[in-house]
Amino acid sequence: MTPKEFIDKWRDNPLKERASYQLHFIDLCALVGVPHPSPSSHETYCFERGATRTGAGQGWADVWKKGFFGFEYKAARRNLGEALKQLMTYALALDNPHKMLDAAVAKAYGWNDYTSEMSDEEILRRLLALNLARSLL
Asked: Which residues, in sequence order, are CB contacts of 107 under 8 Å at separation 6+?
């Protein structure tokens, strides 16, 4: 799937979050060339991973890959902060995937000095510098 095909398909998606997020994620995986969840990967990579939410009972992460990430969808025009807040309540049950993902991304950027205590300001400064450098190529 090309970026244009992805954008054209999903730009005006009329479906509700629950009806479309798995299809969207599968297309996102196709776009970036990585496998999507399948029945054979259900123990380590799946849709609807059950988890006990800190202070909120049982819940379901929309997409989960053990040791890598948790992914929470929200409907169009909803606050993405809600998705992050919800996902954070799953963090302990899902092995703190956001910290692992942050570390993997930092490593991919070549930030060998990254720690989870790095300030948001420093991360933003580095991202802006990286984007500027790439725009000059």
From this structure: 114
